[in-house]
Amino acid sequence: MQTHLAPRLRDTAEGREAESILRSCVHCGFCTATCPTYQLTGDELDGPRGRIYLIKQWLEQPQPDAGGAKATRLHLDRCLTCRSCETTCPSGVQYSRLLEIGRQQLAQDVPRRWHARLGRRVLAGWLVHRRLFSMTLAAARWLRPLVPAHLRARLPADGVAGDWPAARHSRRVLVLQGCVQDSATPGTNAAAARVLDHVGISAIAVARAGCCGAVALHLDDADGARQAARNNIDAWWPGVESGVEAIVASASGCGLMLKEYDQLLADDPLYAYKAQRVSALVRDLAEVLDGVDLGGLARDTHVPVAVHVPCTLQHGQQLPDLLPRLLERAGYRLTQTPDSHLCCGSAGTYSLMQADFSARLLTRKLDALQSGQPGRIVTANVGCQLHLASQAQLPVSHWIELFDPDGTGVRPGSG
Ligand code: SF4
Ligand code: SF4
Fold first, then answer.
1. Distance in Å, CA 23 to ligand 1 centroid
2. Quick one: which ligand is closest to 96's CA?
3. In tens digits, what is the pLDDT along the chain, a chain of 415 residues?
4. Residue 368: CB within 6 Å of ligand 2?
């Protein structure tokens, strides 16, 4: 694709990166067919190729056009960042990075209105503040009958984390506790720690580590995301220096973010090297347990299971078969899910910001997951888990709970 970037951007690092990505696109349109939002609207501008054109147009215009910003923003905001298009693209176009640059440039050139900016800031602050989020959840559970029905469906049940084993093995990993997951599904990481302990690996949670930064990035706050990354690197650095085997994320969305700290902080002279070291150590929980014999821990293997592999695992981390393979090896019978490459509509804060598209994608995804008549649904990301559980007719949980030696984490229907 030929490009003529505006002089104001031509000599910037982001401008050069965007130009190189734009030039790698041969506008074949293969990606359009596998884009969930294009499938909903049939509008080229709600597909990756259309969005690439919109970003190109924006970056090429000599002066920002406030009038055109509204339409461009509408279609860019509707993108789930699911990266299905990246999996499909034969030319290796780094669409998600281009989208990030496009969104940030747009926000800089024509800022959102003050109330939209304020709303995003409040949402980001609330989600990543563990205590505040946890207190809100507790209050909402207590006042459940008064909570509006559409939000009530999303309320996770009050979970019990259970014991976290003391560090007793020479093999050690650090575990990201995250922000939302820590309050919404506290059983997940505790179950992961128990399973890891059972197979001879001690899991260590560093309290100072917090949100991975994905929430800020979803809400156009790249500086906030970089700050979250620096905070986590500082928290984990002593562990990294002491030779931990891995930094483990049980939420694939967080894992993807951590794996990309090296790109996020590439231009930071103080953190670039540390970010590379940290990113190289990051593993999804299923990667750590891949190849480990979990058959002895597997419960209820007679119940057929539908697996939702989150976009962040299959498209982002490019590990589409890892989880189904692990579960089959442990003895589970997996049901077929048509169009398993499509997003469930959760996508970080998307389900809150684009409620209509998100709800339609959820209905399609649940129809697909339930079509093989499974007895339960498992997934690997807290956002997908809560989103699916809000409307599913079956129990939805994180897959690790199937193997939890204590079993305290399995809460049917709650996710
Ligand atoms: S498939 Fe790749 S090269 Fe083809 S239009 Fe989509 S992004 Fe461009
Ligand atoms: S990231 Fe997903 S929603 Fe966005 S353009 Fe690509 S396929 Fe479509």
1. 11
2. 2
3. 788 899 889 889 999 999 999 999 999 999 999 999 999 999 999 999 999 999 999 999 988 887 889 999 999 999 999 999 999 999 999 999 999 999 999 999 998 888 888 888 877 777 767 777 777 777 777 777 777 777 777 777 777 778 999 999 999 999 998 887 777 888 999 999 999 999 999 999 998 999 999 989 888 889 999 999 999 999 999 999 999 999 999 999 999 999 999 999 999 999 999 999 999 999 999 999 998 998 789 999 999 999 999 999 999 999 999 999 999 999 999 999 999 999 999 998 898 889 999 999 999 999 999 999 999 999 999 999 999 999 999 999 999 999 998 875 444 333 3
4. no
For ligand 2, whether the C-beta of 246 sits within 6 Å is: no
Best mutation site among 26, 88, 315 for ligand 1 pocket (most ligand atoms within 8 Å of CB): 26
Alpha-carbon distance of 285 to 250, in angstroms, equals 5
Pocket flag, ligand 1, residue 25 (CB < 6 Å): yes
Distance between Cα 85 and ligand 2 center (Å): 6
Task: Answer whether 27 contacts ligand 1 (Cβ < 6 A).
Answer: yes
Here the tokens at position 327 are: 């579960």
Q: Are 392 and 370 in contact (CB under 8 A)?
A: yes
pTM over 0.85: yes
- Taking the CA of 26 as reference, the closest ligand is 1
DSSP state string for 118-161: HHHHHHHHHHH-HHHHHHHHHHHHHTGGGS-HHHHTTPPP----
Which atom of ligand 1 is found nearest the CA of 27?
Answer: 5
| CA separation for the pair 252, 260 (Å, rounded) | 12
Q: Measuring from atom 1 of ligand 1, which residue has the nearest CA?
A: 89
Residue 206 in contact with ligand 2 by CB distance below 6 A: no
Residue 388 and residue 395: Cα distance in Å, rounded? Answer: 10
Cα distance between residue 158 and residue 54, in whole Å: 44
| Cβ contact 240:278 at 8 Å | yes
Question: Residue 89 Cα, ligand 1 centroid: separation in angstroms?
Answer: 5
State the distance from the centre of ligand 1 to the C-alpha of 33, rounded, in angstroms: 11
The residue with tokens 């999996």 is 87
Q: Which residues pair with 247 in a beta bridge?
A: 174, 282
The structural domains of the chain, ordered by start, are 7-111 (1.10.1060.10), 305-403 (3.40.50)
